[in-house]
Design a protein that fits this description.
By secondary structure, this protein is of the alpha/beta class. 37% of the residues lie in helices and 19% in strands.
Length: 342
Amino acid sequence: MSSATGMRVVVTGATGNVGTSVVRLLSEDPDVGSVLGLARRLPDWSPPKTDWDAVDLAAERSGLVERFRGADAVVHLAWAFQPTHDPAATWRTNVLGSMRVFEAVAEAGVPALVHASSVGAYSPGPKDEAVDESWPTHGWPDAAYCREKAYLERALDTFERDHPGTRVVRMRPAFLFKWESASEQHRIFGGRFLPGPLARPELLPFLPDVPGLRVQALHTDDAARAYRLAVHRDVRGPFNLAADPAVDARLLGEMLGARPVRLPRTAARSAIAAAWGLHLLPASPHLFDAVLRLPLMDSGRARTELGWEPERTATEVLREFFEGLQQGGGARTEPLRGRKVG
């Protein structure tokens, strides 16, 4: 447990988009004595006060309890987005793997669990006003990502009932971007066949304006600051995390100098479904359906109880991300390896 040397924190999924930001902030925190980063593949990256251990949550049957024992907090970030054509595979990692993490936290007696939920856990909601954390979290059942995030919300309900002595925090961030995540997100959602020049504004004379395509974005480092605050502060429950303004075709058109052109939902979905069915596009049409229905979130609770405020606007976040796409943004971990495209 914590001592004169500082807190001990374990981070799962420590080499991904969110994990690298969380580990870096914790390693720079004077009140944190040590960080143990867990990932499937060990990185070529050595931040201060950080050790690494290889763990595959989809196959892990033992060892988590020993890794967690003596920790002051476990930050659970591990998540697999692919293969989208095999939902059983992502279920094994995301749901069954998370259940193993929760069980190990309880058995090891870790006093705090900070879990990465998502805006994707929310039931369909409004696009013209923001909802708080009381909005239902039943997800969009056709999309594996939302279905899994919503299922884990119910699992944590049971966990909190059975383990009232464990402080459980659920982070529900908007879509998270940073320069270093650009190559990974290009691979996950765009695939190797999506032309890199599409990230160049001068090659985008118009943008599809699909009804309902209005979402929120947040810099990954801003989300990581909320995770760090949750490790330290005596808070419980869910926290929405998002930056202003909301992102739609009009905003993107202004940023990229492209003209929004109205496109019916059915036409956009048909194109995505065809590309996904041919394995040309990793992002599924079911996820597209979910995005059109996600509510906008009110982050007021994070501001008042965590003392958190995003340092970057959504516009600044997207500008940085587009630069990363053009420049092959990445980091020295396997998930974030850079790749310049186009």
